[in-house]
Amino acid sequence: MRVDPARPSRTSRRRHAAVRPDERSAGRDVARASRRAGARPGHGHTIALPARGRRRAPAPSRGRSGALRGQPRRHPPGRRADHARHAAGHPGGAPGHAEAANSGHPCGIARDARSGPLRIPVVPPARPRRAVCERLVTIRRVPDPHGASPGPPRPRIFVSHSTRAKPDAVCCRCLDAREALVARLAAEGFEAVYDKDFLRSGDAWQQEIALELHGSQATVLLLSQHAMESANVGYEAGIADGRRRVDARYRFIALKLPDVRRADLPTSALKAIHLGEVDMCDWADDEITAGRLPAKLCADLDQVRLWHLDRSSPTRYAVTTALDGAYEDRLRAAADVLQVCGSLDREVLRERLSEALLTERVPVPPPRPDPLVRALGEVLPVLRPDPAYTVAELSVVYARVPAIAAAQLGELGAGADGRVAVLAATRDGTLRAYLLRASGRPRPWPHLEVAVPAGARMAADLVAAIRDAVAGYLGYDGYDDPELAGEAGFRDVLDAHGLETGPVVVVIRHPPDVTLVRELRACFPRLLLLFVTDRAGTGVAVEAIELAPLTRSGEGELKRTHGRAMQLAGRAEAPNPPWRPA
Q1: Predicted confidence band at 511 (pLDDT cuts at 50, 70, 90)?
Q2: CA atoms of 234 and 270, how far apart (whole Å)
Q3: Are residues 299 and 432 located together in one domain of the fold?
Q4: Nearest residue to 537 (alpha-carbon basis) of 547, 522, 523
Q5: Domain residues for 384?
Q6: Based on the domain organization, do 531 and 409 belong to the same domain?
Q7: Which of 268, 270, 453, 561 could form a disulfide with 461, with the two C-beta atoms 3.0–4.6 Å apart?
Q8: Per-residue pLDDT tens for 58-71?
Q9: Same-domain check for residues 86 and 182
Q10: Which portions of the chain have biased composition (kind: Low complexity) (predicted)?
Q11: 19 with 104, same domain?
């Protein structure tokens, strides 16, 4: 008769069926605990199983110490029930049982066989487990668990160096130069990184160096005698030079120390890098000691700062991207009108021009031509309609709306509650321009204009109208849904919306009243209530922030400039009404 070794015998099946479900689960738990504790396969532990009702003889397992139900429990020679106690004091005993008996582990309880203990052997797995391949990832910054937005990131500059000197050494000044450079870059608002900041023992240094170089906006190469002999510096310089060739905005600056001669560069380890094409400047001893940077390096750092602002600001990025469709000669003509340096690369020129277009300017009185309109006339006709509209609207708004008003609205938007502001405006487009300037994005903050009802119950009706308008805009119907939290859920939805796309602004075209403002502030602490009036000085009495207003002539000039820019862009008016949420 052929016997299948993989199939358990009839006796084994009877033994397995005799074990109760709670005993099986306890046995599996003990087996897992034994494997974690380091027990050897085949050596059992003594445990105590829960006894229910009348005590029974323990069901055997598949180990060597098991017995059938109803049969007397037999132990092989040297394997008595108190074997763990004997093994604990015997020099040749099993170490697993000795540790279990002496450590107080629940698996080390030795009791009589009929009181409920059961010896469960640690059975090795049937097949070897597949090895798990793990990848170690270095977490450099842990995000805030509460979702608080961190400060704006600083531009990253990679410092390539080779420092073999010890502190206070007299062989060279490479260590002093590196420390002075890192400290000065940090003082200028940059984040200077070098290899010892992020490399750890066992890291794949080439991959880590490449990641840092590709995540930086510039590379400063400290040219010292040690750097000219280092193959690692040559590897870093090669990656930085490749980035410079691909992206004209990337800055690769070589900072030559006093102990290096230019004639030695062709024979150094950096001979593969065309250092003649790289910006190189000398760093004198007195400048290193005083912590001053060369003027040429400071000019390059200004360009790095502009590039970082363009990358981190959605508005700057939108204007720079929209200008990509303009011809280079049109860009240079607009730059000449706004007095931007013309000897720049095309990529750098677009960033400089976007910075000039988004600068606050004082209106030029007629009959003199306005430089902003002249510059827009050079680039808007050659752009497609959508990019032209983006450049026209953002340029006019940022040039005419006061930056202090945008700062006031930004402070209110970041506040927790009680956000009430007053704007003195007489023109229709002034409100939208203020909200667009305060958002810092190509679209204004979401804003809803609620009509003020008339009558004796004006305050109560206005509260109901605001609640209905905001709930309809957010799609919140939790007031009638028992599963939602009513008013508390409404505030939670408002908080989430504020963190996602900015605060919801409710526009009330009515002079602020002390009683009305107090009631609205109590009912809607999460909303930004903006009262629009036709005269200034009404926000002091109601404890509200009065935004920096435009004069009547300033509002008229804003409307005329905006209309002229829209005509140059091919549109007579904005595509969305001012009241529609963006």
Answers
A1: confident
A2: 5
A3: no
A4: 547
A5: 312-397
A6: yes
A7: 453
A8: 444 444 444 444 44
A9: no
A10: 58-70
A11: yes
